[in-house]
Amino acid sequence: MRTDLIMGWVAYGVAWLAAALFWTLASATGASRSPAETLPYGLLAMGSAGLMGVGVWQITGRVSWNGRSIAFYAIHAGAIVLYSAIYSSYWVWLDLVNGRFEQVAVGLRTSPVQNWNLLMGSWLYLMVAGLSYAVRANRQIRTQEAAAAQARQLAQQAQLAALRAQINPHFLFNALHSVGALITSDPVRADAALERLGDLLRYALGAEDEVPFQREWRFVEDYLAFEELRLGDRLHVDARVDDEARAILVPPLILQPLVENAVRHGIADRPSGGRIELRASVGRGRLRLTVANDGAGDGDRGGLGLGMDSVRQRLAALYGDEASLQVDRTAAGFLVAMTLPLGHGDDARPAP
Fold first, then answer.
1. Are residues 88 and 32 in the same domain?
2. Same domain assignment for residues 103 and 200
3. Is the full-model pTM beyond 0.85?
4. Do 236 and 105 lie in a common domain?
5. In this structure, what are the phi and psi dihedrals at residue 330, rounded to the nearest 5 degrees?
6. What is the pLDDT of residues 266-297, one digit of tens each?
């Protein structure tokens, strides 16, 4: 912000310097003098106008734009008179410095360009004041937009935190249910499941916003190994992950709920078990994740559970229309397909 302010004032000074040079050349041509003779007057004319412009900037900061306020017009009318009076007398300042006071008095009374200088001073004041209000209005709009963007970001973060807080107890409840089912039937495997559950919870309860897909995939593999302790050989998994997909940054717990949904609603309740196919690939600027199972799914909800609903809401909050989640009933069971963009805003998503 400070750099922008400095650059703004530098540009302001350069603009008035360019105006002084233009004034010098125009005056030299009109008065048939050399630019060297008219340069001091050009610098005095535009220099004084530029310095007084700093005061105009301060006035616009103290007097807000209000087209219905009498005080607004009165303050600026007085400032115009003062600005014009000072500007229109620039050409006698050198005489004042040299002590030619009588010549100055005569010149101010008889100069044929004095009225023009007063008019020019008024026009310069109005130009500087108008630009000052425009710059201030633009800054205010940018500040408001930045505040609104920050508010939206905070709201989004709060929403995502709420969704994640919803997923974590859901995952924990289901995991404890799996352990509970083993305690009476196979205490040894139940003990092993509790140890693995600790590893799962460290990831599930983490606070990171994004992780390389490799970590999410490892978590899914650990989760499936956890479920295999309960389901045994009733759970069959066929997984294929493209190497280029492993470094892509993704929100944590974005794939596991889909896999959990397939296990819970498509396989766990079937005596013969079932098969899950997992695919992760990159193409056309998208990360595509698919989870297919050969079970019937949750018929009442079309294969959707709480975790799936939360994933859908998280995708909408993070990516809007750039991500998608589609659930299709197939001849064998259900297919869930998710696509995520490889880029987020102006930043690439591949992990360093």
1. yes
2. no
3. no
4. no
5. -110, 175
6. 787 787 888 899 999 998 889 999 999 887 55
